[in-house]
Amino acid sequence: MVADTAPTHRPDSATATAQWVADILRDRIVKGVYPPGSRIVERKISAELEVSRTPVREALKLIDADGLITISRNKGAQVLQYGAEEALALFDVIASLESLAAERLAERIDPETLDRLEEMHDRMLTYHKVGNHSDYFDTNSEIHDLIVGACGNPIVTETHRKLMARARRRRFLAIMKPERLQEAVAEHEEPMQALRAGDADGAGRIWRRHLLHTGATVAALL
């Protein structure tokens, strides 16, 4: 079981508290604390996190909008089950978005952004070497998000953000497979080389291949 990495600081306002609870629940869903099909009981979350049921209820609405759970009158909140076809379709779209983002970023990358990517990449490798899967995954996700966020296309960035809310659990499944984790680490070095060289075609092509490979791995696990 992966350790719960939820933040411990409780915000003051009701809106911030709901977002705080939602972040905790998202992290637990992604990292398998709440597996697909499991129920998230409002009363238990409220007691555990020492908050009222109102922000928990609002938090569940937020992660429902992300496509991570379903909420029904009879069963309450349940973590969505995933299918192989859905995973392949989802990663096909994400691969297209991220490859476009990598192309655009390679054309416009500045030293500051490249330095940030280099730092994240080195940190990710360190977490991999010591077997820290949770922090490896979080840093890996930061790299993907930065490449998309810095590409200069807000439509790509916003669409990607919404899809990744649904894809993060699937990506975490993939890195828990040792052989795929080793492949993914190697696959991250190739687009980094393309970005350093300002090679837009190479960055896009390599990044798309990386995401499609991840999608195929996830589909095989479902």
UniProtKB/TrEMBL annotation:
Transmembrane segments: none
Pfam family, one: GntR
Residues in HTH gntR-type domain copies: 15-82
Source superkingdom: Bacteria
Record's keyword annotation contains rRNA-binding: no
Keywords: DNA-binding, Transcription, Transcription regulation
InterPro entries: GntR_C (IPR011711), TF_FadR/GntR_C (IPR008920), Tscrpt_reg_HTH_GntR (IPR000524), WH-like_DNA-bd_sf (IPR036388), WH_DNA-bd_sf (IPR036390)
Entries under Gene3D superfamilies matching the protein: GntR ligand-binding domain-like, Winged helix-like DNA-binding domain superfamily/Winged helix DNA-binding domain
CDD domains assigned: WHTH_GntR
GO molecular function terms attached to this record: DNA binding; DNA-binding transcription factor activity
Protein name as it appears in the record: Regulatory protein GntR, HTH
Protein source organism: Salipiger bermudensis (strain DSM 26914 / JCM 13377 / KCTC 12554 / HTCC2601)
